[in-house]
Amino acid sequence: MLLHLNLKNALIREKTTRSITDKLTGVYNREFIELALMKEGMLNSGGTVIYLDGNKVKMINDKFGHDYGDIAIKMICDAANSCIRKEDYIIRMGGDEFVVVLKGCNESAAVRVFDSISTVLRLQSKSKLPFIESGVSVAPGYCEFTNSTDFESAITKSDLEMLKHKDASKQGCK
C-alpha cells in the first residue's frame, strides 16, 4: 500500500512538472505563472521581470527551416540560463518570447543581466549559427514588481516596453 502511494505521488509530481515545462527548451511555460501566483510567498520578495523577444527567429524559420529556428530558441534559453541565479526563473511565453523573473533584483540589476545574456547569445550565434548575419539577439522590456499581486501587471508592462524597444530598433534608434 505504501509503495502504491509513493508511486502514485511520484507520477503526480512528474505529470505536474511536464505540465509546467516547455518541451523544446526545458524552461517553464505559461502554466508555471499560474502555479507561481498560487503558491504563497513564491514572488512576495518582489523583483524585476525582463520580457525578451527573439530577433531574427522568424527569418531563420522561413529561410533555413524550423530545426534552425529551434536552435535559435534554445540558444536564447541557454544564454538566459547561464546568466541567472538558481532562484530566478525563465518562462517561455510562446514562440520566441520569454519572461525572465529576477527575484529581489531592481531594474538596474536586470539591465546588467540582460547585457550578459546578449553577450552570451552573440558568442553562441557565432558558433551555432555562423551563417546568420549579425547573429541572434533579443529585445528587452523591464518592469519591477513588489509582490505576486503586482507580478501579472509587471509581465504586461515589460511586454509593452519590449515592443517599444523593438520598434525603436527597427527605426534605427536605440
Explain the overall architecture.
Helices cover 56% and strands 19% of the residues. With 174 residues, it is an alpha+beta fold. It has a single domain (22-170), classed as Alpha-Beta Plaits (2-Layer Sandwich). A five-stranded mixed sheet has the order 1-3-4-2-5. Helix 3 (57-64) runs antiparallel to helix 4 and helix 4 crosses helix 5 (107-128). The longest helix has 23 residues, at 148-170.
Give the SSE map.
Blueprint: H1 2-19, E1 28-29, H2 30-38, E2 47-55, H3 57-64, H4 66-83, E3 89-94, E4 97-103, H5 107-128, E5 137-145, H6 148-170
Parallel strand pairs: 1-3
Antiparallel strand pairs: 2-4, 2-5, 3-4
Helix pairs in contact: 3-4, 4-5
InterPro entries: Diguanylate_Cyclase (IPR050469), GGDEF_dom (IPR000160), Nucleotide_cyclase (IPR029787), Rev_trsase/Diguanyl_cyclase (IPR043128)
Domain GGDEF: 45-174
GO molecular function: diguanylate cyclase activity
Average pLDDT figure? 88
Characterize the biggest β-sheet: 5 strands, mixed
CATH superfamily: Reverse transcriptase/Diguanylate cyclase domain
DSSP helical segment count: 6
Over the alpha carbons, how many angstroms does the gyration radius reach?
17 Å
Helix content: 55-70%
